[in-house]
């Protein structure tokens, strides 16, 4: 009597949880026998049971994308409790009951089994009479793990490019807006609420409720797409347009430090995805280290290759210069001529150029002024005379041909 009594609030919470939870069928005093699970075997039951899987297989390198699952299918809603040992099956925990009450009761549940866990146990309790359920354990290659690994690899090696891409900015912003619209609504409500308001307690619970609602939507996504596709399409269009408007309002990142932070965040996310998608922990850690070293050694490898080419060229000696072809010679002459003329115009327009001295020495000041203003440096008549003399069929070319014929004779 003299000891500390539990707080009334805790007793009230425990009593409320016990009243809300439906009592399992079969009686609390009846101790169910533990059924050992074997890979590939199906267990059909209509009474509450305890199941345990003992892992005796050592993970191998080819199990990097292998997933071991316990799948439970039932005709009606059931209660499933997962523990790590047989002793915990008989223990009562109010916290487990609270978590079960907050979660959705499903008749199709999958439990992932860690490849390194020695034993995984679960307790199946029936909530309604006449319920039948099936338990099966299987091990298979999971393509989702490979896709997650590939996505992490892409984020890690392309994080620098993605952080500067406008397409990635808008697509990521719209996707985040579609998934987190409920969270954004709760955040906007928190901004307009007065401080020290009891509504904040509801807002804190609203975040958890939003996450739970998103989880519920993803579980029933196929049924929603089939029955309520009009509302789903309207939501996607509305949330997508609003998200695009917000992204367009603030625009892509321009500050170099912000871009670096986004790039580092994408690379870190890529490493986490790579590590979490591989079931063999030593191999996962090795691949992460290899990826980091490969990305870090990119520039040293380029420098080493450039140094190797220099050493090779120094040892073999200078290579003879390549002669230009006639077409390359003509193009280079045109480019260099235009470049030199533009430099001359810029110099004539500069304050350092003495215009009066130049005008007093040239024969046609008007033509010089037109040239400085952007006109061609030769007249059409001069171009025609040059073409007749040096062009194809001109007198200069004919003289060269006649001289070569006389030398041959």
Automatic annotation (TrEMBL):
It is a multi-pass membrane protein. The chain crosses the membrane at residues 145-162, 167-187, 199-218, 230-251, 271-293. GO terms for cellular component: nuclear inner membrane. It is found in: Nucleus inner membrane. The keyword Kinase does not apply. Keywords: Membrane, Nucleus, Signal, Transmembrane, Transmembrane helix. Residues 1-27 form the signal peptide. It holds the Pfam family NEMP. Belongs to the NEMP family. This is NEMP1 protein. It comes from Caloenas nicobarica (Nicobar pigeon). The gene is Nemp1.
